[in-house]
Amino acid sequence: MAKRPTTKHPQGLPSREQVLQFIQSADSIVGKREIAKAFGLKGQEKIALKALLKDMAEEGLIDGKKTAYHRMGGVPKVTVLRVLEIDDGDAFAIPDAWSPDDATPPPRLKIVEKKKGPGRMAALKIGDRVLARTEETQRGWLAHPMKKLPARTEGLMGVVEMDGSGKGWLAPVDKRVRNSALIADLGGAEEGQLVIAEPAGRSPRAGVKVVEVLGDPLAPKSFSMIAIAKHGIPHIFAEEALAEAERAAKLLLSEDKREDLRALPIVAIDPADARDHDDAIWAEPDGQGGFRAIVAIADVSFYVRPGSLIDREARKRGNSVYFPDRVVPMLPEVLSADVCSLKQGEDRAAMACHLTISAEGKVTNFRFTRALVRIAGNIAYEDAQAQIDGGTAPEHLQNLWACWKLLAAARHARDPLELELPERQVKLDDQGKIAEIAIRERLDAHRVVEDFMIAANVAAARALEAKTAPVVYRVHEPPSREKLIALRDYLDTLGRKLALGQVITPGLFNRMLKDVTEDAERAQVMEAVLRSQTQAYYGPRNAGHFGLALASYAHFTSPIRRYADLLVHRALVDAYKLEQPKPPHNANIPETSGLSDRDRDDLSRVTDAISAAERRAMEAERETIDRYVAAWLAGRVGETFETRITGVQRFGFFATIVGLGGDGLVPISTLGDERFHHDEAAQALVGESSRKRYSLGDRLQLMLAEANPLTGALKFQPLDADGQPIEPRGERMQYRRKPGGKGPGNGKHMTGKRGRPGDIRHQGRKKR
């Protein structure tokens, strides 16, 4: 029962404000009965209270049910949470059953875990579900976990496996889920099929029941579908939203109300496989050693108006999600891939950022207009670079490179963080099968476009600041003191110093890396520096962009695929009075293309939601690439690869294949008969007698022991001095061929003490 606040309440029917105050100040669940008791209501007053609570729910002031109310946009006093992020050992979660809309993105709660004594639960990890008591403080929401709940989404997608007794087991496709679940109801599914299941009862012993059969887990497009289903990524547009997008696509452009830039040779330089084209660039000398430049960005805000159905769909997605075989677009394709996309020879609506760039590469002036553009060419990075290198580039491309050299000089003087972060690229053939996996080559053409985009993004932030308008900043905060202390302690083990009394700048890290001449040690230091960095996010309060060494930074250049950029465009429309008249016959399209009142008043609500959506997309994209890499390597089990250690824990270390990627575990039990202890400060495993070290950043030859395409998990085995696999110590898991097995694992399964199937391993033929 909720405790009454210490202040006395006047007797009689309370006001809406009094009800809200009571709900928020109570320290446990508040229902109709608790409210009636607190205000001394009886008889007809209770009936009136019921009507009042119903009205408040309809007005969006409160949510919940009659036995447990909470304010709208708040969180129930006791609820189920899902862990979304682990940062510096602190877990952050969102309500598991939250149904976000444009008004109420999920709040982020910091989980306060009990460190000692009875009731202390095992360390939480991303995806865990907990029942928790919540409280709202001045510093944000806190959650006090009561108990950990069984996994729901992550553990309930998997592959059907049958054991020798005819029982079905669900082998998970998430490498964080260790155990298979007993299938109580196959629901028509057959062995080897990828399925979605749900609990068959309240007790874990009840097993699971199959509710949807997805088919062959190794078929083309299965890997991305696994990620979409696992992370709950919205990927189907409602028919009403598609119809609205078709209507929006027919909006007529007012030529007399837009700056006409169609005569300029503006070009869009993109990846060869680009599915949409947000940005295009142009530059010409100004006769004074500098350049006039234009960064033209798709004018998505003209077509996607606040409060429309397509706006709500875009807001829910937060961003487009890119997989090797498909894109899950933020906007319907009639907009994202057609009307908004800057295509060669087509008239397009654009938001134009005009830049004046000095001979020193400084942006000395900028202005924003709504424009009409006709793109002179859609050019692949490789083709643009080939024209420049071969001396066959037209004048407008030569101008872009000459202007970029000035911007690059200014960038060098700014000294942003320079880390080598190779991007893996999965190339598929016409049947959707893997043709090649390689590291994407980094060209000057990439840097040209990147530096033009950075200049426009800075200009957008500064332009909005000049008008004291709302800004959706792209924030990258400096490393926390805790992470810097950990980095200092690690560098001490390498004989290098990091003084924490000085101002920490990106240039400090750059000089540190430049001073390391030995490749192996440089890899170690770079890995440690990378781990010390914070994660970037969107927010209305400016904290600068540490990595780019910029005081103000906003994302302006990709509104087709990022909702944050769309919000920046809307803010510019308002601040610089760029509203375009809407043709009168489009009655179903909202009038304004600027910010909504709701966003202007509380921008943090939506920035929190799109930051969470970005993290969701990044994790889904990374996991999918890992699955493709594992599938690519499945036929090469038993081969030796050059790897680099990317993480060290008590139970072993993680390594990635140099030039290919894909993280794999090396269990400590496979390091031989010698005992190893974990040196946390040095990020190393050290042999007790031999002093053999396995340290963060080390390069070493490892044998690929397992590759599981369904989870993306790899497992490596170290080699001895003769290049032979080191014999694991202790009890080893044994392989057996399952009689009659026809599942995707080619009949080879790892069996535990109970002899039931576990993860599917050794996809493809094992090399001898």
Question: If you had to describe this structure to a student in words, what would you say it looks like?
Answer:
The chain has 768 residues and is of the alpha+beta class. The protein folds into 5 domains: 16-71, Arc Repressor Mutant, subunit A; 78-149, OB fold (Dihydrolipoamide Acetyltransferase, E2P); 239-474 and 543-621, no CATH class; 478-533; 623-760, Nucleic acid-binding proteins (OB fold (Dihydrolipoamide Acetyltransferase, E2P), Beta Barrel), CATH 2.40.50.140. Helix content is 27%, strand content 27%. The strands form 11 sheets. The protein has a 5-stranded mixed β-barrel. A hairpin with a 3-residue loop joins β27 and β28 (661-667). The longest helix has 31 residues, at 603-633. Residues 1-7, 99-104 and 731-768 have low confidence and may be disordered.
